[in-house]
Amino acid sequence: MTSPDPSPGSSSTAPTAPGSTTSDAAATDADADATTVPRVTELWVAPERHAPMEPRRRVEVEAGAGVVGDRWHGTRHRHVTLQSADALLEAAEALGAPVPASATRRTVTVSHGVVPTDPGARLRVGGVELEVVRVAAPCALMERSMGPGGAAALRRRGGSVLRALSSGPIAVGDPVEGLLTAPTPSRGAGPARRPDPSTP
User: What percent of the chain has pLDDT over 70?
Assistant: First the structure.
């Protein structure tokens, strides 16, 4: 005599493939998350303008002020600069040489995705909410940090300047919300964006 099927609503354990375990399934989910969720891969700060960039594993962000210890802390809008590793690969292809994240003098580098550049777009990095102010345009310093042609290679690939709307830490490995999944469509022959007048 066979046992009756479990009644609706009764608890049951989903079957697993022969030889697999629950921990194997959890590991697979974690691997999928790591490849689909953009995360912070590098953090860089400079204590003053033109100073060498210094790597960090974690930074503190203050709402309305920016990254504590960074050269732009306390400025009106330029609180955080954020770029994508995808864009750095494109820049390297255009330049014909590797483009290290530190060479662009941006604060935060994320694993993948397209950084929005439209003013007002919102991002969340770890527990910190950020708002796009403008595109982060390359400057003459890129010619020194990346070599001749560096500024041109980084054009439209330099990420965005953001203001900090909330306070909190940002650490390597933190998830990033609000990135685009495909390049922003061309706006045609309209007026070009005004370059960022400030020097990194």
Answer: 66
